[in-house]
């Protein structure tokens, strides 16, 4: 890929650009990506031809919004006409939470572009030269592959534990925490919550394990404000930062104000659209559509990630001009109650207002009663004193007719990325 | 380029590997040699189902690790797909194989059975191309039973704490301890390329085998005794 002459010399300069200048820059990058896709990716050229989207039509962001949105199934079906061996030497697979995984390719030019926002996010999270970072596996995620590069460029050291990010590898992770004594940790929120649970059961001295850690960057689960504070307090670390993103190119990081993650608008162009593909106003939820601004690697132009997201209404007080966006979940982490889509995040917000319930695993139950307006929620542990208040609060906040809470008592369900289960999985009749 | 004092630390079973910038390339070159000895062709797409902290994963490409100038993918002119070895990810591998024509599938021995079951369970749609070769990476003292030499798969002896990677040769059937990288003294295998790596003691069930394989005339070769007998009996 050719070096972009308009790429800011200083990595953070672009954060301070006036909105109009940033949008003008976006338009140029989008035109470049569209031209690249049209010339090199037969899937897009055929799709756009069919849709009547001709050449030379990107003169405004409104023009860009006329490009057809594509789905994961479209790309899987397209196979080599979308992704091929020229796309890059390293492949990653998505987690397949919505069915089949999608395999995509990373190349050196694209990685170079994505290392910069990773460095920015880590700086926001307090990374300083000479720190040691305990990082996620570089093969776990396309964004994770950039982490070690970012740490080294920031003048730090990298450490990796043996294993994966499942509860069965917690001991290995803790051994590395004790032996390496990192100041900075990146991992998944479910993994952290599993550790907190282990700590509460007396099986792990969390304060000692995280003694050296100043910052934790958590991915994989949208953090509620109270959950983030709860994690920081239980782990005994300076701060916990939310990092979000998708294999397909979205990249976001919390700044120090934690007001909602900032989109790294120098590498991705994100849209939030309604069911008809029309943009929705900031503050309103819709489907997250991503376009990678790098004309390299596997190409994503107006790709519907399946995530449910919303832009923040106001600019952030931190001074960074990048828009903020929250990814709330996906259809797989949500249930339809009557006509309303309720995400696990929404339910956790309501449940966690009761401090006694903070840190408990909360799962939505997908069952037949949802069609008639009943939201069923399973909460681990015993019924809390304020249980009735929780049900009333959820009804009011979520706008559902009735909420039924199932207290799971001693039944422990691993914290995971999956937040919705079929009632039969935990012995509850379906309906 | 990373600063000279930068450290890359990998906790592995029974030990730790620490690399400084510039030290990784020699190991990527060695791993690429291992693949070639196992019959992997240039340009191959190699998918590795292992943890990210395993050398088999992090040496896969320069894109995965700072300080690595040319990983296995760059050296073989091929492609690398990192498949985490968690149970959750193993279940996805059959679908990945459906999408991408993988030439070589490298699997940790402890998830090989699970993966085989997943592939059987999911079946194949017929659109995907099965891997041309499967490499089972193991580090225990009791490797899986030997298969016929004509089978499209090989074993890779991999002991991360000793940075030991010894491939099963497609020609002689034995495991090559590459000359200049490892030295076999009696039953001790020393690592000549990684200072401080603990030597690996040949398990009792393993033997030194006749040397002089055309693919590595100066290499020492070893094998589980039962395999050696099978080879000698033709």
Taking the sheet with the most strands of chain A, its summary is:
7 strands, mixed
What spatial order of strands do you see in the largest sheet of chain B?
4-3-5-6-7-8
Number of helices of chain B: 7
Please describe the biggest sheet of chain B, giving its number of strands, its sense, and whether it closes into a barrel.
6 strands, mixed
* Structure classification of chain B: alpha/beta
Count the domains of chain A: 3
Please provide the count of β strands of chain A.
19
Tally of separate helices of chain A: 12
Beta-strand percentage range of chain B: 25-35%
Uncertain residue segments of chain A: 1-11
Distance between the termini of chain B: 52 Å
Report how far apart the termini of chain A are: 55 Å
pLDDT averaged over residues of chain B: 88
Q: What is the helix fraction of residues of chain A, given as a range?
A: 25-40%
Radius of gyration of chain A: 22 Å
Overall morphology of chain A: globular
- Give the tally of structural domains of chain B: 1
């Amino acid at each position: 890929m050719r070096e972009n002459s308009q790429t800011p010399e200083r990595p953070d300069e672009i954060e301070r650009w006036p909105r109009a200048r940033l949008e003008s820059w976006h338009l140029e990058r989008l035109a470049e990506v569209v031209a690249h896709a049209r010339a090199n990716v037969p899937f897009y050229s055929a799709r756009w031809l069919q849709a009547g989207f001709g050449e030379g039509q990107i003169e405004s962001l409104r023009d860009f919004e006329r490009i057809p949105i594509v789905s994961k199934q479209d790309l899987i079906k397209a196979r080599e006409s979308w992704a091929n061996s020229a796309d890059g030497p390293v492949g990653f697979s998505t987690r397949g939470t919505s069915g089949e995984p999608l395999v995509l390719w990373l190349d050196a030019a694209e990685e170079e572009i994505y290392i910069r926002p990773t460095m920015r996010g880590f700086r926001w999270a307090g990374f300083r030269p000479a720190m040691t970072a305990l990082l996620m596996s570089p093969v776990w995620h396309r964004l994770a592959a950039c982490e070690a590069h970012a740490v080294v460029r920031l003048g730090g050291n990298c450490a990796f534990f043996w294993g994966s990010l499942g509860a069965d590898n917690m001991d290995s992770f803790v051994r590395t925490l004790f032996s390496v004594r990192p100041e900075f940790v990146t991992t998944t929120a479910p993994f952290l919550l599993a550790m907190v649970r282990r700590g509460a059961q007396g099986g792990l001295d969390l304060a000692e394990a995280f003694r050296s850690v100043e910052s934790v960057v958590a991915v994989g689960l949208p953090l509620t404000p109270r959950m983030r504070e709860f994690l920081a307090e239980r782990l005994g670390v300076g701060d916990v930062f939310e990092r979000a993103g998708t294999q397909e190119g979205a990249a976001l990081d919390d700044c120090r104000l934690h007001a909602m993650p900032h989109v790294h608008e120098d590498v991705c162009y994100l849209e939030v659209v309604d069911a008809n593909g029309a943009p929705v106003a900031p503050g309103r939820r819709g489907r997250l559509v991503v376009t990678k601004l790098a004309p390299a690697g596997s190409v994503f132009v107006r790709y519907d990630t399946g995530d449910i997201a919303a832009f923040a209404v106001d600019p952030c007080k931190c001074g960074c001009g990048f828009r903020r966006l929250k990814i709330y979940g996906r259809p797989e982490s949500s249930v339809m109650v009557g006509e309303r889509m309720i995400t696990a995040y929404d339910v956790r917000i309501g449940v966690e207002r009761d401090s006694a319930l903070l840190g408990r695993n909360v799962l939505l139950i997908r069952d037949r009663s949802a069609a008639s307006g009943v939201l069923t929620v399973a909460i681990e542990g015993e019924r809390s004193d304020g249980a009735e208040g929780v049900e009333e609060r959820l009804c009011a906040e979520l706008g559902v007719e009735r909420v039924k809470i199932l207290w799971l008592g001693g039944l422990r369900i691993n914290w995971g990325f999956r937040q919705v289960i079929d009632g039969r999985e935990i012995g509850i009749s379906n309906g | 380029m990373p600063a000279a004092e930068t450290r890359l630390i990998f906790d592995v079973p029974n030990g730790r590997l620490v690399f400084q910038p510039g030290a990784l390339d020699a190991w990527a070159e060695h791993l690429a040699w291992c693949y070639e000895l196992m019959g992997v062709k240039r340009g191959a797409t190699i998918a590795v189902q292992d943890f990210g902290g395993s050398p088999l994963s992090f040496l896969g490409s320069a894109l995965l690790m700072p300080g690595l100038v040319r990983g296995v993918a760059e050296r073989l002119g091929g492609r690398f797909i990192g498949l985490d070895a968690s149970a959750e990810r193993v279940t996805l591998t059959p679908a990945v194989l459906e999408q991408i024509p993988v030439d070589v599938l490298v699997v940790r021995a402890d998830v090989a059975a699970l993966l085989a079951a997943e592939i059987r369970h999911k079946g194949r749609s017929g659109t995907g191309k099965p891997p041309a070769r499967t490499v089972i990476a193991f580090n225990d003292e009791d490797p899986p039973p030997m298969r016929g030499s004509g089978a499209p798969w090989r074993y890779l002896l991999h002991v991360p704490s000793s940075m030991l990677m010894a491939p099963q040769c497609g020609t002689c059937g034995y495991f090559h301890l590459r000359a200049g990288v490892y030295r076999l003294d009696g039953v001790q295998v020393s690592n000549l390329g990684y200072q401080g790596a603990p030597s690996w003691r040949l398990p009792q069930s393993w033997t030194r085998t006749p040397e002089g394989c055309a693919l590595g005339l100066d290499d020492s070769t070893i094998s589980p005794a039962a395999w050696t007998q099978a080879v000698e009996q033709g």
